[in-house]
Amino acid sequence: MPKKAIKFPTDPKTGKKSRTTPNPLPGLETAAAAQGCSGRPPRHLPPEKHIPALQNALLDWFAVHQRALPWRNSYTPYEVWISEVMLQQTQMERGVRYFIRWMERFPDIAALAAAHEEDVLRMWEGLGYYSRARHILAAARKIMAEHNGIFPRDPAAIRALPGVGPYTAGAIASIAFEKKLPCVDANVERVVSRIFDVDSPVKQEPAAGVIHQWALRLVPEGKARAHNQAMMELGALVCRKKPCCASCPLGAFCISHHLGIEDQRPVPGKRATVTPVNAVTGVLRRGEKIFVQKRPASGVWGNLWEFPGGRVEEGESPEQAVVREFMEETGFTVNVAARHGIIRHGYTTYRLTLHCFGLDLAAPGKDCTPETCPAPPVLTAATQYRWASPQELEDLAMPAAHRKLADSLFSQPGQTAGASTMPRQGRLTDGTDTD
Ligand code: SF4
User: Which cofactors go with this protein (predicted)?
Assistant: First the structure.
């Protein structure tokens, strides 16, 4: 059988070929190979020449295999927007749980815009990247003020909302309003890089631009909603890190699969360095009340409430560090009264090891109460403080590691974490939390 040369696709923007390496696996079309996840389709259809067929195959597959997700009931722009922002850096199952809870609390843009930031952050607690929640609130207020409470349809107006980047704008405009725009998330990046065999790191140029151009070219006129969701769904369910090509509706069109190099696509970029952080925090009690402080608006965990603490410095023990940190951040002299264990938590590119302590004031004074003493703290790392009861802690938005500590100390046995009532002494198990 004569060998057929593979014509590699060209960049739709520059007209240049996207790869030049020869086909390493010619003559793949065997019946036996059409079995299992690595099976090859009997015939390869170069994707750039069969775009309508590719689009139809994808849409047919999506019609049958799409998951029932709550925002797919009505596709209101508000629901599409919140779901898209929530699902960034969040697993689907977790995102759905948060979405349902959010919609019960803030059923529309007006309800969200009228909410206190504290309530919005509390509903976001555990999703991380808290600036997203603050931006959502600011955007809702802007929609009320400048768009009469109606979500804008124009992509430029959507993009002008606080916190809305190109991906989110494309997702809302295409999924809610059927605008012909692509949504290039990590799933779509993987699918497109494999179908068109993009052979350089996908997060960098020129690959990022090539992927965006192909993703745009694939969007069928008038069917952006179904198509973009189908691309994302295919990446989530079939074209995963380890793809199941035998189940893929696009197997016949996929160059990487045809070449047998799908596991080499997408080409990764440089991995972000993970920085370990060794830190301490302390729970200072006065009677039934616990000292907490509110972080500044800017920076990590902005406007969230926390137990004071900070990094362990070189040559310092965690016990020494928590005493020093309390003095520096509040002016309080404290003693370590209990060890509450270690929390390990991942956020952005940091891996936090948080040593947790119970603290007493070193010299509380006779007949001291939270209302009368100690003297007010001198805050150097916070904008507000409170002596809060365990019940009041429940209503404050806290970083995940601090919420975990609070739950371990104040939740009743058998109670749902976060539904604290009376304080009890607890000890954390050493676990890892990566949200
Ligand atoms: S798109 Fe993904 S799952 Fe489908 S054939 Fe290509 S590599 Fe396989």
Answer: [4Fe-4S] cluster
